[in-house]
Amino acid sequence: MSALPLVAIIGRANVGKSTLFNRLIQKRTAIVNDTPGVTRDRIYGQSDWLGHFFIVVDTGGVDVDGTNEIEHQVVEQALLAQEEADIVIFVADKNVGLTPQDREVVDRIRKSGKPFFFAVNKVDHARHEQELSDFAGVGVDTVYPISAEHGHGIADMLDVLVIALPEMKEKPLPENTIRVAMVGRPNVGKSSLINRLLDSTRCIVSDIPGTTRDAVDTFLEIDKENFLLVDTAGIKRKGKTAKILDKFSVIM
Ligand SMILES: Nc1nc2c(ncn2[C@@H]2O[C@H](COP(=O)(O)OP(=O)(O)OP(=O)(O)O)[C@@H](O)[C@H]2O)c(=O)[nH]1
Ligand SMILES: [Mg+2]
């Protein structure tokens, strides 16, 4: 899954980063609260828009006062997220307006050369879009007015964002896929067991291009449960076992 492009949400505290994150991943994973400095760590989730898959990372406020170690870490984590990201969504707050810190962070992102999207959040109604002239001063071509809470403007921004995503190296597995490895000495019947599984009428077998590292992983859907038979032939190869053992979560 690590092959998916990474989109980092960066901005000052309380601008609505976690609200945007939750909207993008369509879950309420990140805590949203009207207190600045709620998010402290990096939080990851998977999102897709029109079949384009990407990982989103929520971060803490880049303006959190770094007077103690934890606050220092919040800013540090946000910086790391920015560095590892392929694309950055910088979020400002319409109700606060453009701040010197916004400008500072945008300059830093611009210097990184990464594609970035300048979103102004809390634009809950189309009529609020007129209040955005303040943000023209940041010098970006496009300001994306959004409402992370109500959804306004999100689709327009994502339509452009997915075009900027780097080419995906692997197609993601469905969520909750269980990786299963057949482990055992040669000739004990691993292949027969696999074939029996594949032949069973309740089992839908499909090729997922790219999920197959060594051309021997097999994706199965059995009664709506997803399984990946990991590296089943590779097991027989000498010296590969240790590497293979890293790859599965369930051992049969
Ligand atoms: N009106 C309005 N309020 C919003 C919107 N998005 C977020 N909020 C509110 O803004 C406050 C902060 O939201 P969060 O998502 O926690 O902000 P954050 O940027 O993650 O904050 P930190 O984690 O503290 O940096 C909450 O009270 C949200 O309900 C929006 O689109 N419109
Ligand atoms: Mg947050």
TrEMBL record:
Task: List each coiled-coil range.
Answer: none
**SUPFAM superfamilies to which the protein is assigned, alphabetical:** P-loop containing nucleoside triphosphate hydrolases (SSF52540)
Gene3D superfamilies, per the entry: P-loop containing nucleotide triphosphate hydrolases
Q: Which residues form the EngA-type G domain?
A: 5-169
Q: Which UniProt keywords apply?
A: GTP-binding, Nucleotide-binding, Repeat, Ribosome biogenesis
Which GO BP terms sit in this record?
A: ribosome biogenesis
Q: Name one Pfam family in it.
A: MMR_HSR1
Q: Name one GO molecular function term.
A: GTP binding
Tell me the protein family, please: Belongs to the TRAFAC class TrmE-Era-EngA-EngB-Septin-like GTPase superfamily. EngA (Der) GTPase family.
Q: What is this protein called?
A: GTPase Der
The organism named in the record is marine metagenome
